[in-house]
Amino acid sequence: MEFTTTENQRMIADMIRDFGAKHIKPSMRAWDESQEFPVEVFKALGKLGLMGVLVPVPYGGSGFGYVEYVTAIAELSKIDGSIGLSMAAHNSLCTGHILQFASEAQKQQYLPKLATGEWIGAWGLTEPNTGSDAGNMRTVAVQDGDYWVINGAKNFITHGKSGNVAVVIVRTGEVGDSHAMTAFIIEKGTEGFSAGRKEDKLGMRASETTELIFEDCRVHKDQVIGQVGEGFVQAMKVLDGGRISIAALSLGIAQGAFEASVAYAQERQQFNKPIASFQGISFKLADMATEIEAASLLTYQAADMKDRGLDVNKESAMAKLYASEVSVRVANEAVQIFGGYGFTKDYPAEKYYRDAKLCTIGEGTSEIQKLVISRAILK
Ligand SMILES: Cc1cc2nc3c(=O)[nH]c(=O)nc-3n(C[C@H](O)[C@H](O)[C@H](O)COP(=O)(O)OP(=O)(O)OC[C@H]3O[C@@H](n4cnc5c(N)ncnc54)[C@H](O)[C@@H]3O)c2cc1C
Q: Quick one: which of 63, 192, 184 has its CA closest to 116?
């Protein structure tokens, strides 16, 4: 087992730190307040190769593996979880689905635009009444000659409004059949396809989350990804990779909250001593550091296995479950270490705390990760 950081990982981390200091840190509070998705930052990250990390170079991507991808998302999320979430959703979900399952012609058409960040990607699986139980979806596509006509709605979709293209999974057969759902690529501007309400969220407020609405939306059969009926099976495989990115997002938020806590604990004086000198605080830091290390090992193990082409169904769920719960615990302790100042918007702890909570929910809740893990153990 190798535990060393590669030159590529170091280069990516340095690049993101520099970029973040100049282009994210000065405005992230304002974006959080106003819930603005900073499209210009997304595009600039695209120019740096971060919107096509896993996409091979011939399609305009960076051609890296999951280990580098985890480093990039964690480093970005250390600064701002919202930007990390946008990067994860774009790379793993929309672009990842096309990369893994689309035809060569579809790849040629969409990957270069997505991988360079020229286009923003969205991915729609969740519906208002079916989240954890996504296989029970009710948005339906009915075939009409060379076209499919889609009706229904998806919700909680990252980049639902700003996205130039969405991969959506909809029902094309009987409820209860996991081979009765199909993935379509749908471009913004397609008649009958629109964004609905934008969510007003607790955290991750600079990452846009909206409904997608389909009203007699006609999509040509060339826009089907892979085989008709295989969309749900494809989506589950996409999520196996996606969960590694949410583990990385969780890790970055936890690392950010931890680093801020270490600095504050050494600086803040009470009883004429830095609060870090009290065992009640230093033991918190010890627990935080240990849990972050364990989360990091699980996350990089899943990434390494994915890079080696192994099945990561259980390992990505374990990494996502553990790292996201650690992220929430660490962010909670960070607020505690900052005391009253942790409860204010003048210090970073409260934002880490709000952002971390999404990680135990998005791309499958902690309870659903336990379902995935226990199924893998008991099969
Ligand atoms: C900010 C944000 C961004 C998102 N981005 C996307 C996106 O881009 N694309 C997309 O498709 N979706 C997206 N989602 C949706 C997300 O994946 C779902 O919210 C998530 O899967 C949970 O579904 P739900 O919200 O309907 O909760 P529910 O499924 O209603 O769950 C409610 C509670 O019940 C529990 N529960 C449900 N079933 C079980 C069970 N069998 N056993 C034990 N407990 C159970 C859950 O764990 C949870 O605690 C996003 C969500 C958010 C908040």
A: 63
